[in-house]
Design goal:
Strand content: under 5%
Radius of gyration: 15 Å
Distance between the termini: 52 Å
Number of helices: 3
Number of domains: 1
Number of strands: 0
């Protein structure tokens, strides 16, 4: 029998981690510079805005762990976005 890789669970935490990973990858592309840096930064900012929208729309419907994870991801990504914006 083939060794089948396990899939991550389908839950809110996985969703927000996926969006945060996308933002982080966009920020890394922006740091690398080049002609795509501005669009990479904008794409990362869009991902942060999606997370902020989810935070707003899910108030009162998340577990404590999900709320903390989302708040920490947003804080970290916003700090990185400000740092990158000041550099560009």
């Amino acid at each position: 029998m083939a060794n089948v890789p396990t899939k991550p669970p389908v839950d809110f935490s996985t969703l927000i981690l996926s969006i945060a990973t996308s933002a982080g990858e966009s920020f890394e592309s922006a740091v690398a510079g080049g002609s795509e840096a501005a669009s990479a930064l904008a794409l990362g900012q869009h991902s942060v805005e999606l997370l902020a929208l989810l935070e707003e729309k899910t108030v009162g419907n998340l577990s404590g762990e999900e709320e903390r994870l989302l708040a920490q991801l947003l804080f970290d990504l916003r700090v990185k976005l400000v740092e990158l914006t000041q550099k560009c």
